[in-house]
Amino acid sequence: MKLKLVHVVAMPFPANQGTAATIRELIYALYKRGHEIHVVTYYEGQDISLPEIQVHRIPRFVKRPDRLFVGFDKTRPFSDLILMFKALQVVLKVRPHIIHAHHHEGAFAAFLSRLITRTPMVYHCMASMEEELPLYIKPKFITSKLGRFLDGFIPKLSNYSVAVSEDLADNIRKSGFPKASYLPMIVDTSTIIGGNGTKFRERYNLNGNPVVLYTGVIDEFQGIDNLLKSMTIITKEMPSTKLILAASIPNEIQFNKHVALVQELGLRNNIVFLESFPFHELIHLIAASHVTVIPRGECAGFPMKLLNYMAAGKPVVAMRGSAKILEDGENGLVADTWEELGEKILILLKNKELSRKLGEAGRLELDKFAPDVVAEKMEQIYISLLKHNT
Fold first, then answer.
1. Mean pLDDT computed over 226-249
2. Residue 265 class from Cβ within 10 Å (0-12 exposed, 13-18 middle, 19+ buried)?
3. Which pLDDT score, from 0 to 100, does residue 132 have?
4. pLDDT tens for residues 310-336?
5. What is the pLDDT of residues 102-126, one digit of tens each?
6. If phi over 0 gives left and psi between -120 and 50 gives alpha, with beta otherwise, what is residue 46?
7. Helices 18-32 and 371-389 sit at what angle, rounded to 10 degrees?
8. Together in a domain, 268 and 281
9. CATH code for position 117
């Protein structure tokens, strides 16, 4: 059954960053299964080819540098209001079978279209507002309560909810909305496997150095401070170890803060900062690393970098809140403190056989995250929703 789908994406799109990347993969996988796809989104986005997928952007209403952003931006409420009416315009024109709203703001923006046209709507939950809202808006005790309310309220705007982690799906069901299920994120292993690590190490003079890798944004919630502290444990025994912080999106305030901490910890010769690191080089960067790391302590969602690391067959050390599909000692190592994070990274740097074993075990976990597998599950939800809506 060929479906017409309108995806409301409340973030810069397309992009190779985090959840935006997995949304792109899902949309493209659905298109390859024969569905007609329309995307309603912000005016920002990277130059990424999406053949035959029609992207409808809100107008540019403020002048600012062409950049991607993560988290709260003071112009986002205005963007989301305009996105609401843009979505309604597209839905009235296209008359889709399903509206698929991504993220909390996407659900708000899509709800008016659902209300007016009675089109079934799927809400795709990517994160917990109780967890993330206090990171950007203070005071924490107020925004945490507001976030908890929104986490329970927003799914009720939809006919059905899917979530990127079991934790998020459970939270939605516990809030009194039973029509929610876990839908795995997507990793396209072809974009990760086959990098040339040797050339990358040569370019940055890393030959002979043990390399620990973090990729992604360097905002405070990612736990970069704890990762830097953990390096003091590693360098005591392996002083030539290099930690690469490959930041996909620049953040001058956090960058300066991390540089100051590096100086304070005496790690100036052990840290390599790569700002605005291009996605097309990620494959080579991961190949150049010996151990990959996720230092974020709390994560109700699902860190996309975990799938990228595992797809490349690299051993992963993660804080427990971000470990998700990792089983300590089986397909990765899990830590509860920054000290333990350093100790477990050190274990893998010293034990190549354990690193190889964990990397291979991690790669075997990824079948259920394949694009066509996830797209088929999403397709089944659409069809079931249409049957129950008639």
1. 95
2. middle
3. 86
4. 999 999 999 999 999 999 999 999 999
5. 999 999 999 999 999 999 999 999 9
6. beta
7. 70
8. yes
9. 3.40.50.2000
Whether residue 154 is found in the same domain as residue 193: no
Domain count, the chain: 2
**Burial zone of 373 (CB within 10 Å; 0-12 exposed, 13-18 middle, 19+ buried):** middle
* Lookup result for tokens 């274990």: 347
The values of phi and psi at residue 374, to 5°, are -70, -40
pLDDT of 279 above 90: no
- Tokens coding 81: 């209001």
Same domain, 155 and 68: yes
